[in-house]
Write a structure and sequence with these properties.
Helix 9 (316-324) links the parallel strand 11 (309-312) and strand 12. The chain has helices spanning 11-26, 40-45, 55-58, 70-99, 111-120, 153-184, 258-268, 300-303, 316-324, 338-347, 361-372, 375-387, 390-402, and strands at 2-6, 30-35, 49-52, 103-107, 124-128, 201-204, 220-222, 245-249, 273-277, 293-295, 309-312, 329-331, 351-353. Helices cover 42% and strands 13% of the residues. It is α/β, with parallel strands linked by helices. The chain folds into 2 domains: 2-224 and 388-402, Rossmann fold, CATH 3.40.50.2000; 245-384, Rossmann fold, CATH 3.40.50.2000. The protein is globular and about 60 Å long. The longest helix has 32 residues, at 153-184.
Length: 408
């Protein structure tokens, strides 16, 4: 079996795919990946075939960190996806021609690639590395960081905000879908709801109780979080001492969130051992780290077994990875879907939240101390993730697209 995986140029969209892809490789599949250039060597080192995306796609960077509010941030993000979509069409077509796959796994934000997969009729699945954004009973509208309201006013609140979300969808989220479809020669869709889960399978990289209870379409399969990390070149030497350990993680895709690391170094260093991964933020901009370990990238899987709390921006990758180890989280949501991620953490009793505009060393220190008491909630989420079957169950579901169970 040949498998082709196609991602957006973001580590947070590649990493969840890697678990199922490596499991398919272990079972004998030939796996090819098209992804961001800086990750190609790590994917090859893991044992998969890999080539970079077209440079024109990678050149289109997100600028949502420049927006002044959540609505403007979302508009900027979807404008980037819209600009990429027509470029993904020839890039994915070239990958299909070069590999000749039996099966494709396509990132949910690569609208051009998804349109080509639909047009060509190849068996394909969609990779959903963040929370579903479609409306559902009892689930608050996406993007606003709202928790479920279980009083009689809850449905009224949700209907009101769903109207706002629907206008945003029509104006900003539907155009990238149709940009990809037009470039692939498919007719445009009239409503965003028509675009959801058009592949035979959607791998949904989360599980309850992190996600709110909701009815799922028949072709959506919860498989828990992606846990793959590129290995480090050397073992991580944690700061010495008996103080509790806090892992502080900035976004793997640049969001200008270095203030989180700076607040942690200023407010936590006296009471905790700190490991800080800055990713797109220059470590030198943070000044003297003292006895903290600061690096752009370190394999979190080596650190999390020793961590008491994780402080992060609320990206799905690092948040769920922490919870998969039963480690509670203190989230400082910086933008994108991170307000919702923070709301899910708090609703599950698995951590705390500090508003970006209220971030200070003192407030962060208080929130981290409160998060330490949330380990039982984190452990409940860990058990929910494990119950999905993880990468093995995802690989089973992908293989079933080629070998469906006989109907009676």
């Amino acid at each position: 079996m040949k498998v082709l995986a196609y991602t957006s140029p973001a580590r947070g969209h590649l990493n969840p795919m890697m678990g199922p892809l490596l499991e398919l490789r272990r079972r004998g599949a030939e796996v090819h990946v098209r992804t961001l250039t800086p990750a190609v060597e790590a994917v090859r080192a893991a044992g998969l075939e890999a080539e970079p995306l077209a440079p024109q796609i990678e050149a289109l960077k997100h600028t949502d960190h420049l927006a002044s509010n959540q609505m403007a941030s979302g508009a900027r993000s979807y404008a980037t996806f819209k600009a990429r979509a027509p470029l993904e069409v020839p890039d994915f077509e070239a990958a299909l021609g070069a590999v000749g796959p039996d099966l494709a796994l396509v990132d949910c934000t690569t609208y051009g690639a998804k349109a080509v997969a639909e047009r060509n009729g190849i068996p394909w699945a969609e990779s959903q590395p963040f929370l579903l954004q479609e409306a559902a009973p009892g689930v608050p509208p996406a993007g606003l960081g709202m928790r479920p309201m279980r009083s009689p006013l809850g449905p009224l609140r949700d209907r009101s905000f769903n109207l706002v979300a629907s206008r945003f969808d029509s104006r900003f989220r539907l155009p990238p879908v149709n940009a990809g479809r037009r470039a692939a020669g498919l007719p445009p869709l009239a409503d965003l709801a028509e675009s959801h889960h058009r592949g035979a399978l959607t791998l949904y990289f989360t599980a309850e109780p992190f996600d709110y209870p909701r009815p799922l379409p028949a072709n959506v399969r919860m498989v828990g979080p992606g846990l793959w990390d590129p290995p480090g070149t050397e073992p991580v030497e944690l700061p010495a001492g008996e103080r509790p350990l806090v892992l502080v993680a900035c976004s793997s895709e640049f969001q200008d969130d270095g203030e989180i690391a700076a607040a942690a170094l200023a407010g936590l260093r006296d009471r905790y051992r700190l490991v800080v991964t800055t990713a797109g933020v220059d470590p030198a901009s943070l000044g003297d780290p003292g006895d903290a370990l600061v690096d752009r990238f370190l394999p979190h899987a080596e650190i999390l077994p020793h961590a008491d709390v994780v402080v992060c921006h609320g990206g799905m990758g690092v948040t769920q990875k922490a919870l998969s180890f039963g480690v509670p989280v203190c989230v400082v949501p910086w933008g994108r879907d991170q307000l919702d991620v923070a709301a899910h953490v708090v609703e599950a009793g698995a951590g705390t939240r500090v508003a970006r505009r209220r971030l200070s060393p003192a407030r962060l220190a208080t929130a981290v101390e409160e998060a330490r008491a949330c380990r039982p909630g984190a452990e409940r989420i860990k058990a929910g993730y494990e119950a999905t079957g993880g990468a093995g169950a995802a690989a089973d579901a992908l293989e079933a697209l080629l070998h469906p169970a006989p109907t009676r």
